[in-house]
Design a protein that fits this description.
By secondary structure, this protein is mainly alpha-helical. About 70% of the residues lie in helices and about 0% in strands. Helix 5 crosses helix 6 (about 120-140).
Amino acid sequence: MTKEFSSIVELKSIREQKSRLSEREQELSSPILTDFSLIPEIYEWFKEILSGMACPPNPDSVTQRKKFLFIVLFLFAPSVLAGGRLPNGIRAEISGVFPDVSPCVISNNIADVSFIYQQYKDFRQDIEYLYNQILERLKVKGLIK
């Protein structure tokens, strides 16, 4: 096969890879939950879980807010954590649980959370614990399997 025509085989291979990658991206970005009205209830659970810890942190602190944001984004809009767009309505619902925090600050916090999760082991461990506790409550309520 000549060099020029071998590009057709390469092109076909690239298209197949792109298709597989698109399917995988779709799988990974599919939300676990879609009903944004659950966010206030999840925040109440989040605060309850924090209060039950051996040395309970202040649930209103910036660090705890960022942990909550990471969990909510992972549940409702995982692609945001990888640089995707925030779905319409979610920021307003999140703003409802943080009435003293401007939507702009929430957006800035969202921009930080993936980096902090990747860089700080304690932050990551806390999120994993809190997330698993919230998942258990969602299962008990029959909201997920």
